[in-house]
Amino acid sequence: MTAPRRVAVVGGGIIGLATAFRAQHRFPDAAVTVFEKEPEVGRHQSGNNSGVLHCGLYYKPGSLKAKLAVTGIRGMIAFCQEHSIRHEVCGKLVVAVTKDEVPRLEELYKRGTANGLQGLQWLGPEQMREIEPNVAGVAAVRVPEEGIADYKAVCRALAGMVREVRTGTRVTGLRRDGLEWRIETPMGERSADLLINCAGLYCDRVAEMAGVPRDTRIVPFRGEYFQLREQSRGLVKHLIYPVPDPAFPFLGVHFTRMIQGGVECGPNAVLAFAREGYRKSVIRPAELFDAISYPGLWAFLRRYPSMTWYELRRSFSRSLFVESLQRLVPAVQETDLAPGGAGVRAQALTVAGDLVQDFDFRFQPGAIHVLNAPSPGATASLAIADEILERVRDVS
Questions:
Q1: Which residues pair with 194 in a beta bridge?
Q2: CATH 3.50.50.60 residue ranges in the chain?
Q3: The domain 6-46+152-215+358-395: what is its CATH number?
Q4: Digit-coded pLDDT (tens) for 349-382
Q5: pTM surpassing 0.70?
Q6: What is the mean pLDDT of residues 300-309?
Q7: Measured between alpha carbons, how far is 369 from 198 in angstroms, rounded to an integer?
Q8: Beta strands 254-257 and 263-266: pairing type?
């Protein structure tokens, strides 16, 4: 594809904004426009995540996630430094609570080394507790490159450097007209010769407008958090994560220091009844039907019945939530917890019930669709943007 003259980015989250920002540098003569349905940018995944800077410990070597996490965290830290955005490279412990988790922790250490992480340390119980005095476990890996950042501030900074960000502008239709895309909005029609879909929770719907079959579908999973009360925050000094259970498709509950202060505990993972269902009471019947009518969701539930039931119970039981937290930090009690926030993960799910693990891009003439970019999407957003723009040549 020759250099585009007009670039349209659908979605004003951190990946859409990063892509528009990078596109202005890649194509300096192009008019770049971001279309965001909300009245401000970064309202959903970008503004409701835990704020962690992920550096690539978990991801399969050679995967796009591994590549972009490693380059992405360094780019994000540099961006925060350049624009005076709050961030802290405080490090993380990944803890094997029992001996049977040690082989999985060893595998994570190997993955991190293969992915190019720097300064990884294998710690025994005494070394662990020098860093986190209240942690339980038999071994840990210290990941010194990880940290926390203010991703809302990153979104605001990016938006301020993109020449045209049209907030409050929902894309209602897309159609191909010769070599152009026609973009329909309530405020009228715009055209572009390069369309980039970064619509997050609605990326599959936007792709469908453009004619891409929904062979995978976004199924929203809500992650619910508590926070440690002020008098209990000393229980956690850095980031504390468990060793992921291979039978469980998410990372498990963990402790995260927050850039604005405080310590977040969680999340669990339950089906949200709306794509923006940050509370149990938020139900959008059409979106709920879209999820429960999808065979992939039922295949997923059949594969993980005990985990699904446990996550649902834990969503309604503070005592079960505390039990999960006590595996890592036994001193935590129910009285230490205050209600926290929630986020909704835009997770692509195949019809066979598999969670799409890697970033997923789809291509059409003049269009690139980002159909799966969960964690480490925020950390790697600038690197993802560079990857998207490298692939513009594939959509000619």
A1: 7
A2: 6-46+152-215+358-395
A3: 3.50.50.60
A4: 999 999 998 999 999 999 999 999 988 999 999 9
A5: yes
A6: 91
A7: 7
A8: antiparallel
